[in-house]
Design a protein that fits this description.
3-stranded antiparallel β-sheet, elongated, alpha+beta, 4-stranded mixed β-sheet
Length: 452
Amino acid sequence: MNAKKAKLMDSGRLFQENWTKLFGTIERNGKALCILCGESVVCRTSSVKRHFETNHKNVAELDETEKEEFLANELRKYHSQCLNLGNFLSKPNHLTKASFQTSLCIAKHGKSLSDGDFIKTTMLAGSDFLFSDFSNKREILQRICEVPLSRNTVKDRILRMANDVNQQLSTELQKASCYSMCLDESTDINNHARLAVILRYVVGDSMREELVKLISLPGRTQGVDIYNAVMECFLTQSIKPEKTVSITSDGAPYFISHFNALNTKLQGVGKTAERMFCDIKAFERKLQVFEKDIEGGELKYFPNLKMHLENSTTQALSRLVLKTLEMKLEEFQENYTWTNKFCALRKTLEKIECGGILEENVAKSCENEILKVWNSLPINFKSMKLLGIAFLTLFGSSYACEQLFSTLNFIKSNRRNKLTDELSAASVALKSTKYEPSINKLSECSQQQRSH
């Protein structure tokens, strides 16, 4: 023993092994830890002895044999508890993962948050019979009991999974070359105005159609309110509005200064079928006038568009793009290698439509086949490729928003009208998305807890 260590021993500042047997303490982080109460004591014989005789007087007064046996038993119990805790903390987060997965199932089926406890009760009720011939039946039942599925836990899981899905969506939108937007506004069961923002975009050879956000709007919902809400949504999720190639909405008052006029004429009491038919026929004739106005470039009936196009930079850019496309189209038509690809595509689409595929899958299969061909074009046809993909992203109607509001009404119903806007939006997002939450990653970031 060197002189320095001997000096520390003499001064009582180093842990001494015999303290474990005499006073029930072990060394932890340079201090003496009492295994009887868990309190840390300064490494001095006098301090350790004083703590033992003062706080554990009933043990200190035992005879030497009884005291030694008692402390040895407490030491074994302490080490056993540490081992069990270490094993528990080192295990994969099975309970947490099960909690996330069950919560996801609840959200995708639009069920109540409190159904988590009901699911656990049901599993336990059938387990006695289901696992009756299993040797580890008791351990299985214990594991089911420990899965945390309280209402607050399910709520937390749903919000975190919805946030994870939204992050995946934002990442892919930032990579997308363009997207089309579908907008619609409705009210929920509590008469809260909600705006659905859905984007349609391409990921590889697949078309995606995803809810970006279900926005809560203020009492009044004018066009400027919707515009500001959408722009704020884009800003917070780093989505570039300039990549938007089209907007589809059922809200004519906000986006079309002429259809709204026709819509107003068709409304009201006392409108006969003959009168409405005349209004519609008159509007059809107006459409021909609008067409000539646009083709001629005068834009007398579209002042806002005219103001935008009068910007010299925009005009020059538009003309340059059109000229480039025209040149590339001429080059493409003379390239039989690539034109034959589209001829083969036509045959493929015919097979899909006549192949007995379910109707809802036909459109998806067709558009994915079309995307494959466009994506196969070489770099010198990049402008044509981008234009083709842009057309494929167009929404045919606002049905996507209408379907989403049906989902909202199912989740936030008369029986569950106390759901917050944030939570109902998260539930709708998980129910409607094609993305899968990263449950493994979320579980690793969560401390595993056992249900009591």
